[in-house]
Specification:
The chain is 45% helix and 26% strand. By secondary structure, the chain is of the alpha+beta class. The model has no long low-confidence stretch (mean pLDDT 86).
Length: 814
Amino acid sequence: VFVAQHVASAIEQQRKADALRASERRYRQMFENNRAVQFVLDPQSGAIVDANMAACDFYGYTRDELRAMRIWDINVLGEQAVREEMALARQQQRSYFVFRHMRANGEIRDVEVHSGPVEVGERKLLYSIVHDITERRRAEQALLRSEEKYRNIFDYASVGIYQSTRDGRFITANPSLARMLGYDSVEDLLARSLEDVYWDPAEREQLILRFEPVGYASNHELRWRRKDGSPIWVQLNAHAIESQRGVLYFEGFVYDITERKEAEETLSKQSAAIMASMDGIGIVNDRLEFTYANESLAKLFGYPNAQILLGRSLCDLYEPHEQVRLITSIVPTVSQRGRWRGEATGLRRDGASFPQEMSLTAIDGGSMVCVVRDITERTYAEEQIKHLAYHDALTNLPNRLLFKDRLTVALSHAQREKAHLAVLFLDLDRFKVINDSLGHNIGDQLLQAVASRVQMCVRESDTVARLGGDEFTVLLPRLGHSDDAAPVAQKILEAIRHPFHIEGREFFTTTSIGISLFPEDGVDAETLIKNADTAMYQAKEVGRDNYQLFNALVNAKALQRIALEHGLRRAAMNEEFRVHYQPIFDLRSGKISGMEALLRWTHADLGPVPPATFIPLAEATGVMIPIGMWALRQACRQAKAWHDAGFKTLSLAVNLSVTQLQQPDLVACVRDVLRDTGIPPRLLELEITESSAMQSPETSVRTLYDLKKLGIRISLDDFGTGHSSLAYLKRFPIDTLKIDQSFVHDITSDPDTAAIVTAIIAMAHSLRLKVIAEGVEFTEQANFLRRHACDQMQGFLIKPPIGADEFYEFLRMQ
């Protein structure tokens, strides 16, 4: 049994050995005879353990040479990269690689390698199959380059390119087409369709029906639509991309021909314009004979048609003296310079002459183009324009320019003859009210009527001019005496006072007149006009409806006013103002309960300027609103600082000017100041005067109630000096009445004044109003006010207005 088992085992081992040899023989045959390049590699050392004949043929090495090499000897990536790839293949994490291998002759080939682990005996090796993909890679790269070249052509072509479906949806488009059609990007264009692009969408369908049978369309000119809706002319070349099932899509090439179409249209219009032109146009040869003439030229010279002019000389259309000028001067100029343009007198067929503008231009062959235009109407218009340049269009009176010229001439005569002359400057009183309330039509008619009346008051040798608006000037030359100007001014005043009847209505107006005299008030036109203007302002200041002679004092005041006005504007821009504070004394508690903020200004040259002077000027010049809002903000900011310093119940009173009270956004501005400064609204009191409130009572009432809604208090200043009725006093949402200092001054010496003050206090208290007396200077006045239950007072008895730092020290001493 043992022998039998031993024999069986030996037979089995022999069978396995035969099978192994047969398998190795088959593997060797497959390995050797396979046309694919194959390697067996040692993954640790990189040695080429074995290589088949295909590998020897491909790389140009013998089998022994390959077995003596390492795999990175033929791989251009180098050892480290190859080791990393072999490690991935050994761990079966990756089996496919692309390398660049070098043949024995130095040629580089692109290869793809499939690798995997294999055991040979006890050795763990790698089995690799190598395929040459050099040609495939080259083909792929060539295709990529071709596609890139196409994409570059597509993207950067100056011509617009697109592809679209049969129903008009864009498949793709290049940037040039997007820019051409005014779209921000290609994506923006692709979101639209060709129906959005065609000016007439039906035109696209008609075009397809025409070119679909032949498969293409060439040089079709169409009107498309840009994104903004404007038209664009394009030239379209399109063709269909087809398959066995029909049209896949359309591809089009688009050229912008808008400029060309516009040029063609312009040329067409020019050609039509030459034929239809109102200008006479003709061509003459070197003998000045017409070889072409349009109908307008014939009509211009009174001929029935243009054919009659052909062959006639250009000279036949002009009088003898113009013919001489044409031949001896004009034609030689054209020969030298190529063209001539000027005015001439033409001769019509019936012998009538007319002014014309003519141009001659040399062209090839010695001919000239002649263009003739009848300027009869233009000549008349130029005369009219010249008249308008020196006259006022509304009144037909001389304007400033002509008046100044005539004044200059009159001054020359006056200087030679040692005579006198006068300049009157007139300005209608309150004309703006009529113009704004009744309309410019009524205002214009009134100005015309005034001009007529002034002219009736002067001599024919005098000049009445309108400078503009409601300002007139009068020149009175050759006066025997300087005093002769005043009666004329008085005559004008009386004429203007009479009522004017316009459109069935009666109007009354007056005028203020300033007079300057030569040589007393100036020796040149500018000075006399300026001084008369200054005197006119003086006439307005003393009550209007009068005349004033210029004098040095008036001029000095005017100059001072101008200096103040300029300084005021500069001060507003540079914040040169200061806010002073006057304490308000509570008569019941015996303590300082608040302060009134007062604006102060020190002019750089003139020194301190009283508020009574600069505030009306600020109102008149339009800078009161920014100044007033600055003062309000500054005072509120300072009051909040004192509150934070411990004086938490201190109230602040700030004056509102007339202009501020009428300011449309006053409530919003005050709200912003309260928010920005943080002052409690209940501690802010805005002071208005009776006069300012009565400028526009209804508007004032609405504004004051809106201010009250913010939580602030309203004070009526200078009570008793205005002209408001008690009815309006009841309507105004007032919290405080301030008795004017003119009453306080006499309360201890004048029983009537004392009675008025007592009545004001009693009335205010009956209306539940607080009363403050201003201008208290003496103890007797304070005692009177205390006895009659006046609530508070302010004045020099307590403290005059002082700066913020001094006021703070005053508070600390209380």
